[in-house]
Design a protein that fits this description.
The chain has about 130 residues and is mostly beta strands. Helices cover about 10% and strands about 35% of the residues.
Length: about 130
């Protein structure tokens, strides 16, 4: 009798806790024009990331439910950061603001250039006098 009681005591308190997940899908567009933004990177804080396709579509799977912080970045656009509570599969349309890309200056160095040849008349192809 004592063996059964001890065994039940050990088994009953054990439970498996499962974390709930959901998917986030949608598309990324340019604010004002609704043009799709291809190759935008979407990153869930502390989780997964994905890149939009040529059609601006994306799908993030297995995102933990609860508070989600999502960052969207694309070349030529200002980054977008949003936070929301994810309770189930969700669809989003994310609008990015156009932002100019600022590049460092480009420095070139010129060297002496020598050009050799002849000058010809366009219509006849004849060499111009004194133009060798």
């Amino acid at each position: 009798m004592r063996v059964r009681a001890a065994l039940l005591f050990v088994i009953l308190p054990c439970s498996v806790s499962a974390q709930s997940t959901a998917s986030i899908d949608g598309r990324v567009v340019e604010r004002g024009s609704a043009r799709v933004v291809a190759s935008a990177e979407l990153r869930v804080e502390g989780g997964s990331s994905v890149t939009t396709g040529a059609d601006g579509q994306f799908r993030l799977r297995g995102v933990r439910t609860g508070r989600v912080a999502l960052t969207v970045r694309a070349l030529g656009y200002a980054p977008l950061e949003i936070a929301f509570v994810l309770t189930r599969d969700t669809s989003l349309v994310l609008e990015l603001e156009v932002a100019p890309v600022v590049l460092d200056e480009i420095v070139g160095r010129a060297r002496m250039l020598t050009v050799r040849g002849v000058v010809r008349e366009k219509s006849s192809g004849a060499v111009r006098a004194g133009q060798r």
